[in-house]
Amino acid sequence: MGSGNLDNFEKNLALIEKRGLELISHAEDLQHLETLRVELFGKKGELTSLMKQLGQMSHEERPVAGQKANAIREALTKSYDARAVRLKQASITKQLETERVDVSLPAREVPQSFEHPVFRAQAEIISILRACGFVVEMGPEIESEWNNFDSLNFPPNHPSRTMQDTFYVSREEKLVLRTHTSPVQIRSMLRSKPPVRMICPGRVYRADYDHTHSPMFHQVEGLLVDEDVHMGDLKGILQYLVSEFFGSELKVRLRPSFFPFTEPSAEVDMQCCFCKGAGCRVCKSTGWIEIGGCGMVDPEVFKSVNYDIDKIRGFAFGMGIERMAMLKYSIEDLRSFYESDYRYFLQFPRWLV
Ligand code: PHE
Question: N- or C-end of the chain: fewer Cβ atoms within 10 A?
Answer without folding.
Answer: C
